[in-house]
Amino acid sequence: MTFTCFDLRMIATLQGAQKIVVLTGAGISVESGIPTFRDAITGLWKNFDIEMLATAEAFLRDPALVWGWYEWRRMKVLSAQPNAAHIAIAELAGRVPQLSLFTQNVDDLHERAGSIDVRHLHGSLHHPRCFDCGHPYSLPDGVPDEPEGGRRLSPPKCLECGGMIRPGVVWFNEPLPVNILDGAFELSNSCDLLIVVGTSGVVYPVAQLPEVARNAGHKVIQINPARSELDRICTWNVRGSAGKLLPAMINRAF
Ligand code: BV8
Ligand code: ZN
Known about the structure:
Number of domains: 2
CATH class of the largest domain: Alpha Beta
Shape: elongated
Bound molecules: ligand BV8, zinc ion
Largest sheet: 7 strands, parallel
Number of strands: 9
């Protein structure tokens, strides 16, 4: 069912939920000024297929291009603020017995909105590591300068082994963090409500989570201004932006 306002049964489900899983994608950060994953192609990268940048092969082929892209994205995040949707999820956690937040996003806007125990299924821009030995790398504080020369930037070197530093994200064809992914499947199976916000539902294995919840007999609410691959699975598809709908939905319920 698709709605542009709130169905009373949906509000009642939210009010009665004891164990909620929230799953977010790039759409929740749009109102913070962060382009979605598939819109993030601008400038130097507009001639690149997104999945040709977010891979280990792309990084090995052209480390400066890929590292420059991620530093540009990290700069965008550091210059941004959490929006009302991030804040609403942090507040919801204080109103229900148990809320588990999983995000596909690599920004830290959920943390900066006050959410604790944010589980990053696709890693984080803020935790780079050595490509060779895996040793963590501490980035300098503050917002990096706009990379010179059209946003190519050579990656720093590992202080332990001299290898190249890579972004701390999960690239395509790389495994997701097993403990976080297992937790996501387990909680999607055992929760009583899953709320999915701002994702196109095209990237696996995360795109399976709403279906796991639905197949286990639980309700699924989707918040997205547009249709997504998840529409056919969700109990309620609420059309609109997360920054408006999430606070309104939570205020209506509590
Ligand atoms: C793996 C980090 C195995 C990097 C990302 C099964 C079937 C088919 C393919 C596969 C499959 N299993 C695996 C694959 C391959 C692949 C995959 O899924 N490919 C897809 C493209 C077909 N998956 C993988 O490679 C995964 N790894 O399976 O490894 C393995 C196991 C063992 C050993 C070795 C290997 C890894 C996937 C992770 C890739 N990394 N990100 C980075 O950020 O640079 S994925 C990337 O896309 C993002 O992180 C994001 O999480 C993901 C999905 O994007 P969305 O978040 O949904 O963003 P998008 O732009 O698509 O959509 C935004 C939505 O927001 C839209 O719907 C829009 O309408 C909405 N919106 C807009 N404004 C608002 C809004 N919503 C609310 N409010 C608004 N205001
Ligand atoms: Zn190293």
